[in-house]
Amino acid sequence: MEDGQCRRAALEDRGHVLVFEPTALEVHRQAAGWFWDQEIFDCVATHLHLIAPHSLRMYGQAWELKKARLDWRQAVLSRFLKGPALTVARLKADASFASEAARVRAFVQSGAGCRATYYQHARQLQPAPIAQIVLRSTTPPKQSASSPDHLDHLRRRFEQL
Questions:
Q1: For residue 145, what are the contacts with CB-CB under 8 A and spacing of at least 6?
Q2: Contact status, residue 107 vs residue 85, Cβ threshold 8 Å
Q3: How far is CA 22 from CA 28, 61, 127, 130, 155, in A?
Q4: pTM for the whole thing?
């Protein structure tokens, strides 16, 4: 056993080990109590069946990207999808395509796979039905008056660094 494993085993032997692994739906419902962007929230909801493990941080990070006018959908999808599945999800999220056939053509032209591969991943991406949750908040929480400059904050707090 490695030294780190020995220490962990010794700690576990002295106490109770509690494992906290909420489902993606449980994390999503928790986010509903404080998150404010319905579009991001609904996007995450349509992909809950694919997310493991899920994190509340995803919501805030997606909002920061959206606020910066960056591709927040790509960031959300790339947390739990890779390769051809990610390409299919991106194409499905892109409203500029006139039809599913146009998405399939774009998929094949991208070199991600053939028509059958597109439909195989598209089937797996179908969301499981969940009840629509309407968020209570519609605006982000007010920022505290703290300075975004962390070094400046530390200097004020501890005077001499």
A1: none
A2: no
A3: 10, 20, 19, 17, 39
A4: 0.67
